[in-house]
Every structure is written in C-alpha cells, then in structure tokens.
Amino acid sequence: MSNKISVLGAGSWGSILASILVQNGHDVTLWARNTDQVNEINQQHTNQRYLADFHYPINLTATTDLTTALTSANIILFTVPTPAIRSVAAQVQPIIAQHNQKPLIVHASKGLEQNTHLRISQILQEVLGNHQSGIVALSGPSHAEEVAKKDITLITAASTDLTAAKTVQQLFMNDYFRVYTNSDLIGVELGAALKNVIALGSGTLAGLGYGDNAKAALITRGLAEISRLGVVMGANPLTFTGLSGVGDLIVTCTSVHSRNWRAGNQLGQGQKLADVIAKMGMVVEGVKTCQSAYELAQQQHIDMPITQAIYQVLYQDADVQTEVKQLMQREGKAEI
After folding, report:
1. Does residue 336 fall inside a structural domain?
2. Which residue among the candidates 102, 195, 272, 288 is catalytic per the annotation?
3. What is the pLDDT of residues 156-205, one digit of tens each?
4. Is 195 a catalytic residue?
C-alpha cells in the first residue's frame, strides 16, 4: 500500500529516510527551508552539503512550502534538529488541524529540549495535541552515509501504540533496512538523546590520545549512566541493551561519521567549543543535550559522573585532562 508521506527536514538523515520511502513505493514530499537545497534535490537529485555523491530517486519531490508538503499527507516524519522541533511543529499544527483525518506523527530526531527537558514526542504531543498514544520514534544505530550505500542497518520504531509502531515498521522495511518495534517510547528516546553526550566524551578521549581500553570503559560506564537516569524517568532497563541503547551508543562512540564524536575529538585536541561548532556547520545534538541531562541528573539525584565531567568541559570551561583525572580518582565502588 502506497502512503502519502511528508518528511520535514532535508539534512543527511531526513533526506536518506525520504529516499528509502520513495524506493519502497511511497509518495514522498521532502520539506526544507533552503531554496537552493530544494532546487538541487529537484533538479540535480543531489544534496551535496549533507551526502556528497549520493543521487536521490528522481520522483522524490522537495519544497520550501510547508502547506504543499503536508497536503494529503497521512504520515508526517519530523527529522529536524531538536532545537527546531517546537517551532516547526507550531507551523504544522494549524495546517493539519484542517485535515479530515489526523496523520500519523513520526520523528527520527535525537535530543532533549533545553530548559523543559522534554523528550521529542512530548514536545510534539504538547504542540500538536490529540496524538498522545500515536507518536512513533524511529531510532537506532544508523549513519546516513552508510544507509546511502545500502549497508545493512537495523533500527527501532517505538510507540505506546504498537499498531502505529508496526505501521512505521512496514513503511521502511526492505532488504538492507530492518525495523523492529518497541513499546518503550521513553527508553528509546532517552537512549537516543543521551548517547550523544557519551559520544562527545568518546571523541574527546580519542583527541587526547587515549586508546581502545579507555573507549570501552567510557561506553560501558556511559551506558550505566544512561540506564540509571532512564529507569528513574520510567524506561524499561532492557531497552538500553537494545538497538536504541547500546547499539546506537557503540556506533556513535566509535565512528568518524558521528558529528558528536568529531566535535569531541576536536575538543580533546584543544579547540574551543564555539570554533568546533562553527566549523561543523551542522547541529551537534550532544552539546545541548548534555546540559539537559546534567540538570535532570541533579533534579533526580542520579549519579552521572561522566555526564557531569562533559558538562564541566562544555559549560564551565573546565580542563579536559583534569576532568579525566578526577573521574579516575573517584572513590572505589562496586560495578553494579
């Protein structure tokens, strides 16, 4: 069955998801703010800033007009960065309020909103309304660069409404892109957001010259921190052993494709955060998520020493080597 799908956000992930949907036989409109980018996708079928040398299906249509993008859409996929979720949803709301049938809302973004600390589905519920049980989060270990090459990729569609999750599962499944369902929306979204913080730390250790032992230690203890906070927030601890937990953590903490890892790597080499972000040219989700995670840990009285150390480096101008030494000199504790 072909669906009319609107994909909001034409970065590397949004555009490659749109491409998969077209290849799977769906009618897809890709929305972006940048006119030059939209023209490039429509005319050259490329998106060079985000995925150099990849060619999109000729029947993928892009537009800067949100009303056009949403016309007749029965599924809306948000892929814009977390800081833009609320403002884009606010533009979407009056348009879809006029639809006879409410579209299925899906998002593939990874982060927590600053100040409110809301997960993305909570932001969408708050702004769009009447989708309390139907929002689906699409998450897991998935670099757009590798999906573009049709490398084998497995991710999760999470929702408290398993019928909605199964609908999204069927939209994307093909011979190189496999989707599992999960009813733990809280755990999937928190795992997706918090792994970016740990990836910053992993890149920083690499930038400092530390090797695989340190990387494995950071990933393992980072997962422990994510799980501690997640359980307090209502997540199933088993979710963090799955694709959106340890799976996404591994790929984000070990790959040069990860912009969070790359940003951390530059920080470890002594570059300033503002300069790193400016040179990256794309949103580094872990930077703002780190502040939210740190504040949540303080509010919930959860011990998250790695997150705290990364926060001190990002927001308190702390010395990276000093923070590493302090982590290693903490009082000895049982692992579990």
Report:
1. no
2. 195
3. 999 999 999 999 999 999 999 999 999 999 999 999 999 999 999 999 99
4. yes
